C-alpha cells in the first residue's frame, strides 16, 4: 500500500506539476487536444468562462447585502437600535421621528450605490456579449466573448481588442511578431512588440493552426501585468519539444492589436482570472483626518447622550419619591406596571430618555458629508486650469473620500523622472575612451562651427581610436529594444528618422533608448530595422551592416543594465552591455575607466542622465556555455526570475569599457515655482528617485528644492565608508541641533523664507542600514529616531538610488512617526505605486511611464505644476467647507436637543417631548440641511487667485486647526448658550398665566393662549431661524443660489408650519398642532420675542469674531479685511485712476 501511495505521488508530481516542487501551475491543451499516448497524462482542469463581473450586487442579493454594508456603520446601526426600541417599548416620541430620517439616509445611499452598480452591469453585458472569432476544426467561427474557454485558439484582426489573456502562436508578419498598445491597461500609447513561439510562427492559416498539437504549462493567474512564467510543449512525431514562454509572448486582455493584419493565439486566462480583472481589486480604504475627528466627536456626544439619560432617569425616581407625584390621580398605573421590578422600570425609562435625546447624534451628517465629497470632487474635474492641452487630459478623481485631506498635507514625497522632469530625453553627448562627441558640434575629433562654448575634454582621438569609436556607435545602435515603425501606419502623424533618407520613426517603452538611437543617427550610425532575427544599421559610409541577434538579456531595475549578444558578418560573437555606471564599472576589467568616470561625474553634476557602454568578445566555447545557462534558466518554471538573474550575473562579467552617453531630461514647466510655493505653504518636500546622487542633486537645485543658502548634509555610502554610521548620524544631529539651538526666537520670527536651512541627501544603501533593526547590546536601535530628528529639521530631503519598496518604507516611517503628519506621494511610474498607496494621499501623474501610477492613485493630474492649485486652492477650500459642515451639524443638534433636556425639569421628568413629531422628523432632513450642504459646496472665504499668490495662507488651516478640541468645545458651548437663551427666553415670556372664562390658559402680559405645544413651537421657530442666520453670518461668498436656498429654507419652514397647523389631517390620530402656529404669530409680543431671542443668541458669536479679528487676526482675516476696505471705496479708486490718466496726458 505504501508503494502504491509513493507511485501515485510521483505520478501526480510528474503529470500534474511538471517539476518536483512546483505545484502552483496549470496545464492548457491547445484546441482541447489530448497529448499523444505515452507522453503525459491527460487531466482536464476546470477553468472559469470568459465572463467579466465588475458589479458588486445581483438582483437577488442587492437589498440584504447593501443593508448589511450600510448598517455596519456605527451611526446607522445606532439609529436602527433606537428605532427598534421605539417600536418595542412605550417611548415619548413616535418611531417615525427616528425611522424616517434613517430611512431617508439608507434609501439615498442605496439608490446611489444601486445606480452605480447598474452602470457596471450594463458595461459588463456590453463586454461579455461582444463577438469573438475562434478557430474550430480548421474554420473560423463566431461566438460571444463570455463563452470563450481556456484552450480555444482565437483569431484577432488589426485594431481589435484581445478578449482574454492569450499566448501568441503566429501572426501575419513573417518574423512572428505583432505590435500592441496597452493604453487601457497601463496608459502607454506606444507600440510594444510581442513574439510568437518560434516553432509555431510559420502557421498562417486556420487549417495549419488547427493542426498544432501542444500543451502549455504556466503559473496560476496573478495580478502583475509584467510577469509571466510558462513553457510550451510542442509534439512533433510524438516527441515533445519544450520552449520557454515569458511576458513577451503574453497578450493581455484589454490591449489592442496594431500594425499587424491578424494573429492566432491561444486563451490561457479567461474571465475573472485575466490579469486585467485581477487588477480590479480595490485598494485599502484610506480615512481622512476630518473623518477621524467626526468619529471622536460622535463618541463625545454619545457620552453626553448617555449622561443625559442617566441624569434624567435618576432625577425621575427622586421626583417620584413622593407618592402623590409617583401616581397622580390623572395617570394611575395598571396592576402589571405596579408589579414590575424597579430595575426593569428604570431600564425602560433610561431607554425612553435615550430615544428622547437621541437627536443629538446627527444621523444625516454622514449622508450630507458623503454628498458633499461626491459633488465637491467635480470642481477638480471641471477646473480648466488643470486641463493640459498637450495631453488632452483633465485631472481625475479616483476617490472623493480624501478631498479635505488635500488641505492638510505636511510632507510631499515626489518622484524625479517624469514627475519633476518631462521624461522627454534629448541626446547631448557621448564619451568614447575620454573623447567627447556632441552631435553637430564635435564629431570624429573635428570641432564644428558655432560650438566654441561647449565644455570639452580631449577631443582628438588618435588614428587607432577609430575602430573603438565605431565599435561604441555599433554597441549603442544594437543594445536596445527600439522598434522602427513605418510613417503611414501611425494615425496620419508624420515622423522620420532623418529627412530625405527614411520615412520611419523610432518607438520604445524607454525614452532614453530612443534618444540614444537618434543621437547615434546624428553621429553617422543609423539603426534601420530588425528583420528575421537580424538587426541592420547604416554606417558612415552608407553601407548596411547586418548583425544576427542571438540573445537579449532584458533590462531590469535590480541589475540596472541590459545586454545583447550578436554575431557580425565575419562570424565573431559580441556581448554589448549598457547600464548605470554603478552596475557597469564593477564588471569592467579594462578600458579607460578613469577618463570615462570623470566625464560621467561631470555630466551627472550638470543634471544629465548617464549610461555606460561596455563589450566582451565571446569565443565559440564561451557562447555555448552562455546558451546552456540561458536555456536552463528560461525553461525553469520555479524561480525563473532568480535563475535568470544568476545566469545574467555569470554572463555579464569581464567587460571592456567603451564609453558613456549623456541625455538630458528637462525640468517640467513651473516645477520650480510649484516646489517653492509648497515650501512657503509650510510643507516639506522630499524627492525619492532611483537616479545617482549627482544627477538628482542637480535637478533639486534647478527645481529650487535646494536653494543657494541651503546647507547640504550627506548621509551616503561614501561617507559611511570613511566613518561609522553611528558617528555620521551623531555628527549630523549635532550640526542641526547646534544651528537651531542658537537660532530659536530671533531666527524664527525675524527671518523669512531665506533663512538658512538644511537639505539632506541619503542613498538607498545607507537607508537600509538606518532602517535595519538594532542588535542586542548595540546602539543601532536608535538610528531610526536619530534619522527622523535630523529629517524634521531639514526643509528638503533627497533620497537617491531608491528601490520602489524603499520609497514606501520612507513614507511609512514619516507617516507613523510620533507627530503623525499627513503625507502626500506623487509619481508617474509603476515604481511609484507602492509609495502612492502608502501615503495618506496618493497622486499619479499622466506621464510617459504608463498609467499604473494613475490607476493606483487617489487623484491624478496631467503635470506636476497642477499640484499647486490642487493643494493650495482646492485642498484649502475643501477643508474649510467640510470642517464648517461637521462643526455646524453638531452645533445645530446641540441647540435642537438641549431645550428638550431642560424641559424635563419642568414636566416632572415625564419624557414629554417639547417639539411636535413633524418638527423632530424634518429638522435635519428639510429645515436645516440644504443651506449647509450648499455652503459646503461653494463657499470661498477668500479668492482663489490670492490663495495661489500667497501660499502662506495654507498654514492657517494646517494640523486640522479648524477641528481641534478647542474649536469643538467653543461650538458646543455656543450651542448650549443658544439653547438656554431660547428655552428660558420663551419660558419667561409665558410667565404669569391665567385661565380665561372658557378654560383656556392665557399669558397675562401678552394675551396669548398658552400650551406646551405653543411653547415648543416658539422655541423651535427661534431655533430654526437662529441656526440658519448663524450659517448666513459665516458665509463669505454670496451668490443667488445661497440667497435662494437660505431664505427659501426659512420660507419653507413657515409655509410648512402654516399648512401643518392650518388643516385637520385625516390620517393623524391627533390634532395637537391645529392652529398653534397661526395663533402664535397673531401675537405681537411673540414676534418681538422671536426677534430679541434670535439677536441675543447670535450676539456673542458676532462679538467674539469682531474682537478676535481686531486683536488676533489670522493671515486670512487680514486679507479679508483688506479686500473689504478696497471694495468699499470703488468710486474713490475709479476717480483716482481717472485723475492719474488725465495728468499723464
From TrEMBL:
<feature type="binding site">
    <location>
        <position position="513"/>
    </location>
    <ligand>
        <name>ATP</name>
    </ligand>
</feature>
<dbReference type="InterPro" id="IPR023214">
    <property type="entry name" value="HAD_sf"/>
</dbReference>
<dbReference type="GO" id="GO:0005886">
    <property type="term" value="C:plasma membrane"/>
</dbReference>
<feature type="binding site">
    <location>
        <position position="417"/>
    </location>
    <ligand>
        <name>ATP</name>
    </ligand>
</feature>
<feature type="transmembrane region" description="Helical">
    <location>
        <begin position="1074"/>
        <end position="1099"/>
    </location>
</feature>
<feature type="binding site">
    <location>
        <position position="828"/>
    </location>
    <ligand>
        <name>Mg(2+)</name>
    </ligand>
</feature>
<feature type="transmembrane region" description="Helical">
    <location>
        <begin position="1010"/>
        <end position="1032"/>
    </location>
</feature>
<dbReference type="GO" id="GO:0045332">
    <property type="term" value="P:phospholipid translocation"/>
</dbReference>
<feature type="transmembrane region" description="Helical">
    <location>
        <begin position="71"/>
        <end position="89"/>
    </location>
</feature>
<keyword id="KW-0256">Endoplasmic reticulum</keyword>
<dbReference type="InterPro" id="IPR044492">
    <property type="entry name" value="P_typ_ATPase_HD_dom"/>
</dbReference>
<dbReference type="InterPro" id="IPR032630">
    <property type="entry name" value="P_typ_ATPase_c"/>
</dbReference>
<dbReference type="GO" id="GO:0005769">
    <property type="term" value="C:early endosome"/>
</dbReference>
<dbReference type="InterPro" id="IPR036412">
    <property type="entry name" value="HAD-like_sf"/>
</dbReference>
<feature type="transmembrane region" description="Helical">
    <location>
        <begin position="968"/>
        <end position="990"/>
    </location>
</feature>
<keyword id="KW-0472">Membrane</keyword>
<comment type="similarity">
    <text>Belongs to the cation transport ATPase (P-type) (TC 3.A.3) family. Type IV subfamily.</text>
</comment>
<feature type="binding site">
    <location>
        <position position="832"/>
    </location>
    <ligand>
        <name>ATP</name>
    </ligand>
</feature>
<feature type="domain" description="P-type ATPase A">
    <location>
        <begin position="131"/>
        <end position="204"/>
    </location>
</feature>
<feature type="binding site">
    <location>
        <position position="415"/>
    </location>
    <ligand>
        <name>ATP</name>
    </ligand>
</feature>
<keyword id="KW-0547">Nucleotide-binding</keyword>
<feature type="binding site">
    <location>
        <position position="832"/>
    </location>
    <ligand>
        <name>Mg(2+)</name>
    </ligand>
</feature>
<feature type="domain" description="P-type ATPase C-terminal">
    <location>
        <begin position="854"/>
        <end position="1114"/>
    </location>
</feature>
<dbReference type="Pfam" id="PF13246">
    <property type="entry name" value="Cation_ATPase"/>
</dbReference>
<dbReference type="GO" id="GO:0000287">
    <property type="term" value="F:magnesium ion binding"/>
</dbReference>
<feature type="binding site">
    <location>
        <position position="555"/>
    </location>
    <ligand>
        <name>ATP</name>
    </ligand>
</feature>
<dbReference type="Pfam" id="PF16212">
    <property type="entry name" value="PhoLip_ATPase_C"/>
</dbReference>
<keyword id="KW-1278">Translocase</keyword>
<feature type="active site" description="4-aspartylphosphate intermediate">
    <location>
        <position position="415"/>
    </location>
</feature>
<keyword id="KW-0460">Magnesium</keyword>
<dbReference type="InterPro" id="IPR023298">
    <property type="entry name" value="ATPase_P-typ_TM_dom_sf"/>
</dbReference>
<keyword id="KW-1003">Cell membrane</keyword>
<keyword id="KW-0813">Transport</keyword>
<dbReference type="GO" id="GO:0010831">
    <property type="term" value="P:positive regulation of myotube differentiation"/>
</dbReference>
<keyword id="KW-0967">Endosome</keyword>
<keyword id="KW-0479">Metal-binding</keyword>
<dbReference type="InterPro" id="IPR059000">
    <property type="entry name" value="ATPase_P-type_domA"/>
</dbReference>
<feature type="binding site">
    <location>
        <position position="807"/>
    </location>
    <ligand>
        <name>ATP</name>
    </ligand>
</feature>
<dbReference type="GO" id="GO:0005789">
    <property type="term" value="C:endoplasmic reticulum membrane"/>
</dbReference>
<feature type="transmembrane region" description="Helical">
    <location>
        <begin position="297"/>
        <end position="319"/>
    </location>
</feature>
<feature type="binding site">
    <location>
        <position position="416"/>
    </location>
    <ligand>
        <name>ATP</name>
    </ligand>
</feature>
<feature type="binding site">
    <location>
        <position position="831"/>
    </location>
    <ligand>
        <name>ATP</name>
    </ligand>
</feature>
Amino acid at each position: 500500500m505504501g508503494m502504491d501511495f509513493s507511485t501515485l505521488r510521483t505520478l501526480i508530481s510528474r503529470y500534474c506539476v511538471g517539476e518536483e516542487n512546483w505545484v502552483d501551475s496549470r496545464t492548457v491543451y491547445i484546441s482541447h487536444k489530448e497529448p499523444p499516448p505515452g507522453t503525459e497524462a491527460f487531466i482536464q482542469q476546470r477553468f472559469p468562462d470568459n465572463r467579466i463581473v465588475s458589479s458588486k450586487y445581483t438582483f437577488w442579493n442587492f437589498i440584504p447585502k447593501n443593508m448589511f454594508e450600510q448598517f455596519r456603520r456605527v451611526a446607522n446601526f445606532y439609529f436602527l437600535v433606537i428605532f427598534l426600541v421605539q417600536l418595542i417599548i412605550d417611548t415619548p416620541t413616535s418611531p417615525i421621528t427616528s425611522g424616517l430620517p434613517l430611512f431617508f439616509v439608507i434609501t439615498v445611499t442605496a439608490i446611489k450605490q444601486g445606480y452605480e452598480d447598474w452602470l457596471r452591469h450594463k458595461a459588463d453585458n456590453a463586454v461579455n456579449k461582444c463577438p469573438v472569432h475562434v478557430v474550430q476544426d480548421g474554420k473560423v467561427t463566431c461566438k460571444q466573448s463570455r463563452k470563450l474557454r481556456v484552450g480555444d485558439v482565437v483569431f484577432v484582426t488589426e485594431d481589435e481588442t484581445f478578449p482574454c489573456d492569450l499566448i501568441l502562436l503566429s501572426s501575419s508578419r513573417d518574423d512572428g511578431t505583432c505590435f500592441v498598445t496597452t493604453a487601457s491597461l497601463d496608459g502607454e500609447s506606444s507600440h510594444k512588440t510581442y513574439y510568437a513561439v518560434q516553432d509555431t510562427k510559420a502557421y498562417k492559416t486556420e487549417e495549419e493552426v488547427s493542426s498544432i498539437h501542444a500543451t502549455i504549462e504556466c503559473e496560476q493567474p496573478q495580478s502583475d501585468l509584467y510577469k509571466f512564467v510558462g513553457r510550451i510543449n510542442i509534439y512533433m512525431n510524438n516527441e515533445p519539444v519544450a520552449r520557454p514562454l515569458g511576458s513577451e509572448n503574453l497578450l493581455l486582455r484589454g490591449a489592442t492589436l496594431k500594425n499587424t493584419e491578424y494573429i492566432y493565439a491561444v486563451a490561457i486566462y479567461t474571465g475573472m482570472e485575466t490579469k486585467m480583472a485581477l487588477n480590479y481589486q480595490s485598494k485599502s480604504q484610506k480615512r481622512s483626518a476630518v473623518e477621524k475627528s467626526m468619529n471622536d466627536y460622535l463618541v463625545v456626544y454619545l457620552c453626553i447622550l448617555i449622561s443625559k439619560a442617566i441624569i434624567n432617569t435618576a432625577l425621575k425616581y427622586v421626583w417620584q419619591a413622593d407618592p402623590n407625584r409617583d401616581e397622580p390621580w390623572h395617570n394611575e398605573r395598571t396592576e402589571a406596571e405596579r408589579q414590575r421590578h424597579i430595575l426593569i422600570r428604570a431600564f425602560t425609562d433610561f431607554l425612553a430618555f435615550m430615544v428622547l435625546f437621541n437627536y443629538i447624534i446627527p444621523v444625516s451628517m454622514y449622508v450630507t458629508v458623503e454628498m458633499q465629497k461626491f459633488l465637491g470632487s467635480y470642481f477638480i474635474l471641471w477646473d480648466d486650469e488643470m486641463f493640459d492641452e498637450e495631453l488632452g487630459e483633465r485631472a481625475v478623481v479616483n476617490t472623493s473620500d480624501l478631498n479635505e485631506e488635500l488641505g492638510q498635507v505636511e510632507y510631499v514625497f515626489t518622484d524625479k523622472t517624469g514627475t519633476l522632469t518631462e521624461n522627454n530625453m534629448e541626446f547631448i553627448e557621448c564619451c568614447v575612451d575620454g573623447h567627447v562627441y556632441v552631435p553637430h558640434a564635435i564629431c570624429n575629433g573635428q570641432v564644428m562651427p558655432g560650438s566654441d562654448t561647449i565644455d570639452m575634454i580631449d577631443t582628438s582621438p588618435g588614428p587607432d581610436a577609430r575602430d573603438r569609436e565605431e565599435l561604441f556607435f555599433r554597441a549603442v545602435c544594437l543594445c536596445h529594444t527600439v522598434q522602427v515603425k513605418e510613417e503611414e501606419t501611425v494615425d496620419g502623424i508624420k515622423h522620420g528618422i532623418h529627412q530625405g533618407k527614411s520615412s520611419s520613426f523610432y518607438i520604445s517603452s524607454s525614452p532614453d533608448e530612443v534618444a540614444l538611437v537618434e543621437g547615434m543617427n546624428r553621429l553617422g550610425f543609423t539603426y534601420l530595422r530588425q528583420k528575421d532575427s537580424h538587426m541592420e544599421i547604416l554606417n558612415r559610409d552608407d553601407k548596411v551592416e547586418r548583425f544576427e541577434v542571438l540573445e537579449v538579456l532584458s533590462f531590469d531595475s535590480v541589475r540596472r543594465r541590459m545586454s545583447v549578444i550578436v554575431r557580425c558578418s565575419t562570424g565573431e560573437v559580441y556581448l554589448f552591455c549598457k547600464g548605470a555606471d554603478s552596475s557597469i564599472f564593477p564588471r569592467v576589467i579594462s578600458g579607460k575607466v578613469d577618463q570615462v568616470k570623470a566625464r560621467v561625474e561631470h555630466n551627472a553634476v550638470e543634471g544629465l542622465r548617464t549610461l555606460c557602454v561596455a563589450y566582451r568578445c565571446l569565443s565559440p566555447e564561451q557562447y555555448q556555455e552562455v546558451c546552456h545557462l540561458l536555456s536552463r534558466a528560461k525553461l525553469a518554471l520555479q524561480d525563473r526570475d532568480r535563475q535568470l538573474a544568476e545566469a545574467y550575473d555569470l554572463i555579464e562579467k569581464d567587460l571592456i569599457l567603451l564609453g558613456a552617453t549623456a541625455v538630458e531630461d528637462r525640468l517640467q514647466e513651473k516645477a520650480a515655482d510649484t516646489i517653492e510655493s509648497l515650501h512657503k505653504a509650510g510643507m516639506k518636500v522630499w524627492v525619492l528617485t532611483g537616479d545617482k546622487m549627482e544627477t538628482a542633486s542637480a535637478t533639486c537645485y534647478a527645481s529650487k528644492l535646494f536653494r543657494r543658502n541651503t546647507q547640504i548634509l550627506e548621509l551616503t555610502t561614501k561617507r559611511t565608508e570613511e566613518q561609522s554610521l553611528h558617528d555620521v548620524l551623531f555628527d549630523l544631529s549635532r550640526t542641526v541641533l547646534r544651528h537651531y539651538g542658537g537660532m530659536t526666537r530671533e531666527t524664527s520670527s525675524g527671518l523669512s523664507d531665506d533663512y538658512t536651512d538644511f537639505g539632506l541627501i541619503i542613498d538607498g544603501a545607507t537607508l537600509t542600514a538606518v532602517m535595519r533593526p538594532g542588535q542586542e547590546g548595540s546602539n543601532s536601535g536608535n538610528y531610526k529616531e536619530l534619522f527622523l530628528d535630523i529629517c524634521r529639521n531639514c526643509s528638503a530631503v533627497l533620497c537617491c538610488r531608491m528601490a520602489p519598496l524603499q520609497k514606501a518604507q520612507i513614507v511609512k516611517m514619516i507617516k507613523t512617526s510620533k507627530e503623525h503628519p499627513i503625507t502626500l506621494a506623487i509619481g508617474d511610474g509603476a515604481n511609484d505605486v507602492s509609495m502612492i498607496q502608502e501615503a495618506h494621499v496618493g497622486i499619479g501623474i499622466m506621464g510617459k511611464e504608463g498609467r499604473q501610477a494613475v490607476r493606483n492613485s487617489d487623484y491624478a493630474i496631467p503635470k506636476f505644476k497642477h499640484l499647486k492649485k490642487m493643494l493650495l486652492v482646492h485642498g484649502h477650500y475643501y477643508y474649510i467647507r467640510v470642517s464648517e459642515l461637521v462643526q455646524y451639524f453638531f452645533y445645530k443638534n446641540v441647540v435642537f436637543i438641549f431645550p428638550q433636556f431642560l424641559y424635563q425639569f419642568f414636566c416632572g421628568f415625564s419624557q414629554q417631548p417639547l417639539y411636535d413629531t413633524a418638527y423632530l422628523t424634518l429638522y435635519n432632513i428639510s429645515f436645516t440641511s440644504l443651506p449647509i450642504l450648499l455652503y459646503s459646496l461653494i463657499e470661498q472665504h477668500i479668492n482663489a487667485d490670492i490663495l495661489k499668490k500667497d501660499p502662506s495662507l495654507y498654514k492657517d488651516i494646517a494640523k486640522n486647526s479648524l477641528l481641534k478640541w478647542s474649536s469643538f468645545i467653543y461650538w458646543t458651548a455656543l450651542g448650549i448658550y443658544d439653547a438656554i437663551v431660547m428655552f428660558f427666553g420663551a419660558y419667561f415670556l409665558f410667565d404669569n398665566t391665567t385661565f380665561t372664562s372658557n378654560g383656556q390658559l392665557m399669558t397675562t402680559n401678552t394675551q396669548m393662549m398658552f400650551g406646551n405645544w405653543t411653547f415648543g413651537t416658539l422655541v423651535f421657530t427661534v431655533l430654526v431661524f437662529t441656526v440658519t442666520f448663524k450659517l448666513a453670518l459665516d458665509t463669505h461668498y454670496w451668490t443667488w443660489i445661497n440667497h435662494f436656498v437660505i431664505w427659501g429654507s426659512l420660507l419653507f419652514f413657515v409655509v410648512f408650519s402654516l399648512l401643518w397647523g392650518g388643516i385637520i389631517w385625516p390620517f393623524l390620530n391627533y390634532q395637537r398642532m391645529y392652529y398653534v402656529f397661526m395663533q402664535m404669530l397673531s401675537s405681537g409680543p411673540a414676534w418681538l420675542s422671536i426677534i430679541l431671542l434670535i439677536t441675543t443668541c447670535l450676539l456673542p458669536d458676532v462679538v467674539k469674531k469682531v474682537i478676535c479679528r481686531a486683536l488676533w487676526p489670522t493671515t486670512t482675516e487680514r486679507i479679508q479685511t483688506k479686500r473689504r476696505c478696497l471694495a468699499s471705496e470703488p468710486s474713490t479708486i475709479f476717480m483716482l485712476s481717472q485723475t492719474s490718466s488725465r495728468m499723464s496726458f
